[in-house]
């Protein structure tokens, strides 16, 4: 499979699947698969802080000091600058750890997507790029995450017409393929 492989879009083109590095997406907001400390980590989190520079960490520290002294809870989301990245903003959300999420882990993962899109709507943002939250270090299987995330995105888009495009950015082509096979977007809107 080559980089130029195209993947299907969903919900009348409002959801686009692509391969790539999320730090390079020129959208209103890229979503960060953060951890509760908001102070950086591995995977997408590390890549976003490296690409965006220190302005992101500075705003995260300020959010911790003022609004979330105990850390951002799982499923929560907050908005910062995107620093030097082509995107305008970062929406940081904390996914569930698959092994320790208990029976609520699907609901927590759905909340990440719904709350991130709510923040986008409140801030008047029309284009949002997501990585596959929780499917890296946090161990959520891509097939299960595909079903949960697609349902949550569909619910959010149906009630928020101001969001024009949700871009789902996958680092690995096989992850994009598994997502496409296991997503549950309604077919009549494709
Ligand atoms: P989590 O801790 O929520 O599991 P990770 O950052 O470890 O988050 O991984 C989430 C997903 O993002 C994984 O599928 C991983 O392959 C993918 N990923 C890692 N780096 C990037 C990147 N720069 N752009 C897009 N996706 C990425």
SSE arrangement:
Layout: E1 9-10, E2 15-19, E3 29-34, H1 43-52, H2 54-66, E4 77-81, E5 89-94, H3 105-122, E6 127-130, H4 142-159, E7 165-170, H5 173-182
Parallel strand pairs: 2-7, 3-5, 3-6, 6-7
Antiparallel strand pairs: 1-2, 4-5
Helix pairs in contact: 3-4, 4-5
Bound molecules: adenosine-5'-diphosphate.
Task: List the bound ligands.
Answer: adenosine-5'-diphosphate
Tell me the number of helical segments per DSSP (H or I, 4 or more residues long). Answer: 5
Helical proportion, percent range: 25-40%
| Overall residue-averaged pLDDT value | 95
The biggest beta sheet reads: 7 strands, mixed
Described by the principal axes of the CA atoms, the overall outline is globular
Which structural class is indicated by helix and strand composition? alpha/beta
Oligomerization state: single chain
Q: Rg to the nearest angstrom?
A: 15 Å
In order across it, which strands form the biggest sheet? 1-2-7-6-3-5-4
The strand count comes to: 7
How far apart the termini lie comes to 24 Å
Uncertain runs are none
Query: Into which percentage range does the β-strand content fall?
Result: 15-25%
Give the SSE order as H and E letters.
EEEHHEEHEHEH
Describe the 3D structure.
- The chain is an alpha/beta fold and 190 residues long.
- It has five helices and seven strands.
- Helix 3 packs parallel to helix 4 and helix 4 (142-159) packs across helix 5 (173-182).
- The longest helix is centred in the middle third of the chain and has 18 residues, at 105-122.
- The radius of gyration is 15 Å and the shape is globular.
- The mean pLDDT is 95.
